[in-house]
Amino acid sequence: xxxxxxxxxxxxxxxxxxxxxxxxxxxxxxxxxxxxxxxxxxxxxxxxxxxxxxxxxxxxxxxxxxxxxxxxxxxxxxxxxxxxxxxxxxxxxxxxxxxxxxxxxxxxxxxxxxxxxxxxxxxxxxxxxxxxxxxxxxxxxxxxxxxxxxxxxxxxxxxxxxxxxxxxxxxxxxxxxxxxxxxxxxxxxxxxxxxxxxxxxx
Amino acid sequence: xxxxxxxxxxxxxxxxxxxxxxxxxxxxxxxxxxxxxxxxxxxxxxxxxxxxxxxxxxxxxxxxxxxxxxxxxxxxxxxxxxxxxxxxxxxxxxxxxxxxxxxxxxxxxxxxxxxxxxxxxxxxxxxxxxxxxxxxxxxxxxxxxxxxxxxxxxxxxxxxxxxxxxxxxxxxxxxxxxxxxxxxxxxxxxxxxxxxxxxxxx
Lengths: 202, 202
Hints:
By secondary structure, chain A is an alpha/beta fold. Helices cover about 35% and strands about 30% of the residues of chain A. Chain A has helices at about 20-25, 35-55, 65-80, 90-100, 115-125, 140-145, 160-170, and strands spanning about 1-15, 30-35, 60-65, 85-90, 105-115, 130-135, 150, 185-190, 195-200.
């Protein structure tokens, strides 16, 4: 062990702007491509719940319309609070174009994209609304071309669920861990052992 | 906008210990509880791939033995490199006890646990090997009691896949994003648009 004593003199120039939290600054939505009702029900459910828990305000589902899945998710939102929306969108390229025409940015998560650790600083620095595109089994070339960013979460195969979680976590800079959801029936009280849940009558 | 100029004098005492990277310090394994072959095949596959991509060296699967799933994962490891192991473990409580008897720590991921942002510093500071337990549909009380840590990733319902990814990401402090996998056939070259993959003959 080495002990070093150092004296440093630092001159700081601090610029104080109006401080805005990230949730005030940008709206985060997610677009899930190419849902297949039978095969993808659980994975798409996990994608939707992850989007909500990590700070998105809305998810668009494309592919097969799956009313049962959407109903189940709306029930979760009713019980766990907040105002997360779920909407079916048949023609997702229109949504991508509308989003950009309204001044928003589109980030397509793909294992082939730029590495998240290299680009997240630039993505976070822009206050534009974010549409995060989560692929399905086939993602057409036009999605790669139209997206403002194609971003990879590791260069290894894993899961659209883990990719979305890590991207939202890095976009929110960890602030999503302290998110509060209004008007919840169920509220978990964190505890080192066991389960504590407050149930609020509505 | 306000501009403030400040001059600060700081006296630092820096203690330099032997510096070891996290991958030298601890071995990370994952235990997936209560796998059901029909219902959980895709989610468990995503759990396994996430464990591997984010720096675990091995996953133990309990519940129903699923040889097809294990074979598929071994094929992924062959193609994408590294030495990730998959092992079926019928009696997982024995594994938890053995792990602790060998000096390792057990972290059970549950939405009811202590919040990850409050405990990750302490967990990361310990160089002991880590067994991360990912729940299934029913997690018995003894898992909560035996675990060194019960940890929640948000207090909201989402996914064991996103919980595992965020926990490993925070445990590795982002270093998993730069992990290299030896002897891979497929190697993705990150690119802003399109797909670039190097294929290495074996």
